[in-house]
Write a structure and sequence with these properties.
Low-confidence stretches: 1-10
Order of helices and strands: EEEHEHEHEHEHEHEHEHHEHEHEHEEHH
Distance between the termini: 5 Å
Bound molecules: uridine-diphosphate-N-acetylglucosamine
Helix content: 40-55%
Radius of gyration: 20 Å
Largest sheet: 7 strands, parallel
Strand order of the largest sheet: 5-4-3-6-7-8-9
Length: 372
Amino acid sequence: MFSVVAGVPKIARVRIVSVVGARPQFVKLAPIAGAVAAAGHEHVIVHTGQHYDQDMSGVFFSGLGIPEPDEHLAVGSGGHGAQTGAMLAGLEPVLERYRPHWVLVYGDTNSTIAGALCAVKLHLPVAHLEAGLRSFNRRMPEEHNRVLTDHAADLLLAPTPQAVEHLEHEGLGARTVMVGDVMVDACLRARKTARAAGLTGAGLAVPGVDGTAPYLLATIHRAENTDDPKRLAAVLDALAALPLPVALLAHPRLRARAQEYGLELARGAVHPATPLPYAQMIAAIDGAAGVVTDSGGLQKEAYLLGRPCTTVRTETEWPETLVDGWNVLAEPTAYDFAALAARPAPETPVGAPYGDGKTAERVVRELAARVG
Ligand code: UD1
């Protein structure tokens, strides 16, 4: 792995295979792809095909300047077992062919656990980006994905001190290194262009998004909110009753379940729209009076952009966002849900618990330093 040039040990070109498949992973991949290229290492991108719609996948690659995937497994949707199993079967020959120095897996989706499991079975070193997050909610598929991935991986790239603590508590401290949160890299980079470009062409037919009046930005996609008709009805009722216009960027799962249960999305305050490409999403958050969501990434983006967030969940993997009330966990049936969701931003400034926006470079350095 090391060559000696004029007496100086020099790290050879490291081969990294990134396994991605779902929308938030493309966002995290963008700064990593840039940092790997800048360091002159080899990067192979494997897309499992978990997300396949143009607005769930394609626009992220083009919009974030990520190279086209080298391998596309086209696994598509399915039950958790069928989907994860198809990924495992598809990944094995690909990872065997490349035999990289590192397999890098991202976050907590079915693509994450499939990448990690496939790599360890082939005795390939695995690094987990965004290691150590815990909701302690064992009903969430993501919780199992992240715990199992952390225990399988050889290098745990943790975003926050609390994530490091979780890993130490589980006996994984020796494999852990804190690198910060790569989403800060992506978000801060996009903010500049997003502010300049605004929401022109985003096709959001919501009063106020042109900057003339306050609006709220909402997304709901988690199974625990969408897959029970009563719960979904309560969430949609709560959104409809909000005192400001709501741009509801509807994930395909939300649309499918609402249709299946005979629930109308476009009611009261709610203006449904298709999901946005990343830069426009950042512009939409930046322009909003507040955010209502069950997404992990959006909670953090709202925090980084200084917008109050109301999270329709009972716990969060990002407790740092709760400090000073920047983010609040709320049940849709709570009597004060509308007042919470439309609350003004706290007066205390947001902190910087997620790092300095240079996480991707740090990740690449950590990976390269451990080769050989
Ligand atoms: C997945 C992740 C979740 C992440 C989310 C981001 C898991 C277990 N969950 O959830 O952690 O927050 O991605 O969006 O991996 N669908 C389409 N087109 C697509 C993708 C999905 O129509 O391009 C529909 C299908 O009906 C599919 C459903 O959405 O069955 C759910 O998609 P899936 O990838 O299984 O999980 P997500 O809910 O997106």
